[in-house]
Amino acid sequence: MSRDPMDEPRGYASPVCYAHEFDVPPLTLDEVAVRLNDLLEGERAGARGLIDMKAGRDDELGRLLDAVARDEARFCAMLSHHLTRLGYAPSHETGEFYDKLARREDLDAKLRLLDRGQSAVVRLLDELMPSVDDSRLLADLREMRDVHVRNLEKCAAYLAD
User: Fold this and answer.
1) If both were cysteines, with which of 22, 26, 64, 158 could 133 make a disulfide (CB 3.0 to 4.6 Å apart)?
2) What H or E segment, with its residue span, contains residue 158?
3) More confident: 3 or 95
4) How many other CB atoms sit within 10 Å of the CB of residue 8?
């Protein structure tokens, strides 16, 4: 039986990326579009999973899940906008993260997987940003990263309680 890499313990978030200090060539538009669509599918999966997790909850955790789901949905719109602006079709697929989240029966297991997923997005953004040669997209990707880090901190605080 193969292990799911999303089940492996990971660090809470990536350290600050210093790759911008190195001479990193920009990605081609095709390469950027592939990565943006990958992020879009992942954000859509996260938003759907969070909505499912929040269902019927009207407590502190429900409000936290709702806020994170709204962030995920906002980033879906942002990524779709940039893909269209750059001349590419946004994906309409939902990433496999949604199914992985749905398979978890225990709320704590779902929250731990969500934490790993948010951390993975931060790492992907850290890898992508130094190679993006579009100031508008780069500004939005930085904001996306910062929001994911803040959401990681909020979820970690909840899990610590």
Assistant:
1) 26
2) helix 135-160
3) 95
4) 8
Greatest alpha-carbon span in the chain: 50
Question: What residue type is 122 in one-letter code?
Answer: V
Query: In the prediction, which pLDDT does 97 show?
Result: 94
Reference 81, options 146, 140, 122, 143; nearest CA is 140
Average pLDDT, the chain: 88
Higher pLDDT, 154 or 6: 154
Directed axis angle between helix 107-128 and helix 135-160, to 10°?
A: 150
Nearest to 83 by CA among 141, 127, 126: 141
Q: What is the pTM of this model?
A: 0.83
On the CB side of 150, CA atoms within 13 Å amount to 11
> Can you tell me the distance from the alpha carbon of 105 to that of 86, in angstroms, rounded to the nearest whole number?
40
The upper half-sphere exposure of residue 119, i.e. CA atoms within 13 Å in the direction of its Cβ, equals 20
C-alpha to C-alpha distance for 89 and 83, rounded to whole angstroms: 6
